[in-house]
Amino acid sequence: MADKPIQGEKRMFVTGNEAVAYAALAANVDIMYGYPITPQNEIMHYFTRLAPKFDKPFLQTEDEISAGFTTVGGVMSGKRSFTATAGPGNTLMQESMSMAEMMRIPTVVVIMQRGGPSTATVIYSQQEVTMTCYGANGEGIRVVYSTCNHQELYDYTIKSFNTAWKYRIPTFVLGDGYQAKMRESLTMYDPEARGIKMVDTYPLVGLPGSPGVDRDPAHLRNTYNTEEELYEVVSNLVKDYEAVAPEIVESESFDCDDAEVVVLAHGVVSRAAVEAVRELRKAGIKAGHFRPITLRPFPDKELKAVANQAKKLLVVESAQGQFAKLVHHSLYGDSTPMEYIFKPGLGITSDEIINKVKAML
Amino acid sequence: MGNLVKIALAGEGGQGVQSVAEILVEAANEEGKEALYIPNFGVEQRGGVSIAFCQVSDDKKIGSPKFEKGDIVIALSDRAIRRCAQYVDENTVFIYDTSIEGAEGDLPKNAKKVFGIPAIEVAKNELHPRVFNIIIMGATIRATQVVTPEQAKQALEDKLGYKFEQNPKLRELNYRALERGMQLVEGQM
């Protein structure tokens, strides 16, 4: 049996899907559940190749409904479990993930967004933002990390297990088909070697002793009889979530201090935004970039501070305003003029952003 | 050529452009450069035009994975020529295979430079059809200079070493294909 998937640190040149499979193993995941769908297939593919060396099992289920629920089951039994999916598979997983929200099951799901609606393309989009943040019947009691490169896919896959188990909130890593399929360099590491301690896992059911006699009952419920009872439960979920949100929220800003136009983007599109801002600055144009890393919880305070300073905002995304809705909600009452580049299912380059910013000046 | 080189390789499914791209960026990464490669992919399992988008930079992290215009665009079939017109502007060097019939009318008019190389013919008549893509790799390396020939050979060794072990003649064939590819571009840039 091999010792650890990554010893110390190692520069790698791989696809994003491989980076996720390695990260899960480096995070000492116990099991992966999954059902194949492009563009995340290779997460499963590499996991099933690598995992047996570390005595970690994989279960292929009959569909994504089952993959989601088996992940919930794995977590309930105390195992650090995850699954990965995309597009229509993400749709099918919403049912199990709303159960995870209700029962505070620390599941981890990696999403590689593809085009939508329906089967659409297997390639790329940012059209799973609303669904990943707020899918299913619930209040979006979730953590969603939107990554922009392979290093972050690796970092946040590891981190998502700790966020999920520390706060008992279902956690998502939101990538996309580009990140899944492209190859670029990153540094993989053994979390322990960097002083990252994996949060302990524990069973949520089948605990020793008699409930109500030797210990409190676990009370893992997703069904309630009265409106008032449900209201109390959901209110507490929301209250707990809001209490920990400031600890979880993450964002990044780039050249925003004196910026006339701040480009708002998330995920892989922020790479184009950074490049655009660099070029615009070279040309003497004061542009900046703000990027939420967590889409849930959303960095409201940080974005407001940026919006207060900026003359104009430009929201850029590979969807028809799903990210912009989060921005609008966050900036309600702010009067900074806002413009948009919406390209559902299509990649966005720095040139498009540069031209738009110039047109806004 | 600036710090960042953008390369689009396009051919018919099965011509091996994706493996060329993969070996090329591996080599660049081994040289300590930043490289990014993304295949275009659709629901079709085979056939159709296959495009590999590669970017290599000396040091800085690369921006968006796909780009609007390439520095070097290599098209290896008639459909690939037509499909790749969109990646060409006045800074693009456009390379195509001379054996593509009726290509002239479709070649881009706005490129910095357009020229043909007889890669398919060389593969068929001089070497072996199976090293066609390695000829293309040689041509790409010579045209872009994103990696040294030595590093390219090492990358081939890393990728195909196990096959070379079984049949050392394959190594020689691949190395010759790489060099022939470089020669085809020699003096044309």
From TrEMBL, chain A:
Signal peptide: none annotated. Keywords: Oxidoreductase. Residues 23-245 form the Pyruvate flavodoxin/ferredoxin oxidoreductase pyrimidine binding domain. It comes from the Bacteria. Residues 259-343 form the Pyruvate:ferredoxin oxidoreductase core domain. One of its GO terms (molecular function) is oxidoreductase activity. This is Ferredoxin oxidoreductase. It comes from Heliorestis acidaminivorans.
UniProtKB/TrEMBL annotation, chain B:
It comes from the Bacteria. Pfam families: POR. Residues 13-183 form the Pyruvate/ketoisovalerate oxidoreductase catalytic domain. Keywords: Oxidoreductase. GO terms for molecular function: oxidoreductase activity, acting on the aldehyde or oxo group of donors, iron-sulfur protein as acceptor. Gene3D superfamilies: Pyruvate-ferredoxin oxidoreductase, PFOR, domain III (3.40.920.10). This is Ketoisovalerate oxidoreductase.
